[in-house]
C-alpha cells in the first residue's frame, strides 16, 4: 500500500484493498473456521488467483495463517491479539459476568451479552443455565441476524442509520416492514421478545454507558408457556440486570448521552 506519511493521500486502489481485506476476514466465524482460496473467491466473486494472492499476503501480515488442511486458511495470531485487545477495552465485558450468572440462576435460562461488531451484533459472553441438564445456548463469537431480539434492541438505539441497511441486505419489503415494526416496539417498551426456530424464544434489553448503547443482554428459553409480560419474573430480572450494568457504566436509563442530552 502507498505511503501516506507526509500528507500523501491514499489511492483508490489502496482503499479497495483495505475493503477487500475486511471482506475476507468477515467470512470467518464460529461455523467457518477455515476457508480455501477457492471458497473465498466464490463467496466474494473474485478470480481464484486474486483470492489466493490476497490470502497469501494476509498470511505474511499475520492476519491469516495456513489451515490444517492443504490449501486452507484460518484467522491468524494478529487477529487474536487485536480481538483480545478490543474486548479488553469494552468495560462492560469486565463487569458483566457476575450479573449474567445471577440473572441466569434467577430465571433458569441462558444469559447472553452481545456487542455491536463490524456490521451486526456478536455474542461476547455466555452464561449457561446450570440448573438443567439440557440447555438452549449459543456460542461466543456468533453473529446474530435480524431475527434476534438483541439485534432489534441494537437497531432501536444505534444512531448510525446504516445499521438497519446492513441488517436488511437481501430482505424482502415484508421482512423490512416487520423488522421496522419490531424495532419501533423495542424502542418504546425498552425490551424485545423474538421467536426463533424450534420453539425457542429470546428476550433482550439494552445496556447503556455514557456514550449510548454499549451492549445488549439476552435470555434464551424454550418454554412455550413462559410469561413474558413486563411484570413477569423473567422480564423483571432482565430489566433489573441491564439497569444495574447501566448504572455501573455511568449510563442513563434512556441511553441519552450525559454530555449531549439531545442526542
Structure description:
- There is one protein chain.
- It contains nine helices and eight strands.
- It is of the alpha+beta class and 263 residues long.
- It folds into two domains: 5-79, Orthogonal Bundle (Arc Repressor Mutant, subunit A), CATH 1.10.10.10; 90-248, GAF domain (Beta-Lactamase, 2-Layer Sandwich).
- A five-stranded antiparallel beta sheet has the order 5-4-8-7-6, with helices on both faces. Strands 1-3-2 form a three-stranded antiparallel beta sheet.
- α5 (91-107) runs antiparallel to α9 (233-248) and α6 (149-157) packs across α8.
Total DSSP E strands: 8
Element-level helix/strand string:
HEHHEEHHEEHHHEEEH
- Name the overall outline: globular
Helix residue percentage: 40-55%
Strand residue content:
15-25%
Organism: Herbiconiux oxytropis
GO molecular function: DNA binding; DNA-binding transcription factor activity
InterPro entries: GAF-like_dom_sf, HTH_MetabolicPath_Reg, Tscrpt_reg_IclR_C, Tscrpt_reg_IclR_N, WH-like_DNA-bd_sf, WH_DNA-bd_sf
Keywords: DNA-binding, Transcription, Transcription regulation
Give structural attributes.
single chain; about 260 residues; alpha+beta; Arc Repressor Mutant, subunit A; Beta-Lactamase; 5-stranded antiparallel beta sheet; 3-stranded antiparallel beta sheet; about 15% strand; disordered N terminus; DNA-binding; transcription; WH-like_DNA-bd_sf; Tscrpt_reg_IclR_N
